[in-house]
Write a structure and sequence with these properties.
The chain is of the alpha/beta class and 237 residues long. The chain has helices at residues 6-15, 46-62, 79-90, 107-112, 125-133, 184-193, 207-215; strands at 20-23, 29-33, 38-39, 67-73, 94-100, 140-143, 146-151, 165-170, 194-202, 219-224, 231-236. Bound molecules: S-adenosylmethionine.
Length: 237
């Protein structure tokens, strides 16, 4: 059972307002939240983590299937959506991507990440800008391989009534900071929205998270983590 400090929940939106730009060990940027002592990505490497956890152990696992529906919990800077859109074009996939975000960044904050200054990503400036320019609450066809809907809601509020997903990128802040998001009840809500054979991947590998995922019905695998982190979780339906 997680204890959720009501003071943290009440002041959470204010605590994430003060963001410091931080260069991670692979040279890519992220935000550091001093009030919470938390980062938006691994300080060992933001791009490296996204590629390992979400692309290699998530998307690649499902990409035999050409049409995929993906849910991201914690859209943040849009890094995972951006890298997924590039991979969709490389592998000729058709992806419907839903990005759930309770506290959207401004486009200017997203641009501060300067992901397209990375040599492999420099051709994709327009794609990154378009991902941030699309309207919230509706699907936008970004290109023939990638459709995006950003939803400004919390995971707790949102309802997946008419939607189902092949793949979930669970990229919330960690359980130390937001234990209310890493619960059996919310994992069960995601499980219900997953198609049979669907998977959830997350950077976190805490024992309690694995137990809560199992109680919600998932088969849980522990995989090697990205550089700097020992393990990560992939959970299947
Ligand atoms: C670890 S960061 C995500 C990083 C992001 N995936 C990226 O590529 O930049 C966690 C994100 O979850 C968002 N968040 C916090 N509480 C949330 C909630 N209750 N429901 C949905 N998103 C939430 C935060 O605002 C933040 O953007």
């Amino acid at each position: 059972m997680h204890y959720i400090c009501p003071v943290i929940i009440k002041f959470f939106p204010a605590m994430i307002e003060n963001k410091e730009l931080f260069t991670t060990a692979d040279g890519s940027k992220t935000f550091f939240l001093p009030e919470l002592n938390e980062y938006y990505h691994s300080h060992h490497g933001a791009i490296q983590e996204a590629r390992h956890v979400f692309l290699k152990n998530g998307l690649a696992e499902k990409s035999a299937q050409k049409q995929l529906s993906i849910l991201e919990v914690g859209f943040g800077t849009g890094l995972n959506a951006f890298l997924t859109a590039i991979e969709a074009a490389n592998k000729q996939l058709e992806i419907n991507y839903t990005g759930l975000e309770a506290f959207p960044l401004t486009s200017q904050e997203a641009q501060e990440m300067a992901y397209t200054s990375n040599p492999d990503l420099e051709l994709f400036d327009d794609l990154f800008s378009e991902i941030h320019a699309t309207n919230w609450g509706e699907f936008s066809q970004i290109n023939s391989n990638f459709k995006l809907k950003k939803i400004k809601e919390t995971l707790q509020q949102t309802s997946f009534e008419n939607e189902s997903f092949d793949l979930v990128y669970f990229d919330a802040f960690g359980p130390r900071v937001q234990p209310e998001l890493w619960t059996e009840a919310l994992f069960a809500k995601i499980y219900a929205a997953l198609k049979p054979g669907g998977i959830l991947v997350t950077y976190c590998a805490k024992g309690q998270v694995k137990r809560d995922l199992k109680s919600a019905g998932f088969n849980v695998e522990t995989l090697d983590g990205p550089p700097g982190k020992r393990e990560m979780i992939r959970a299947g339906k």
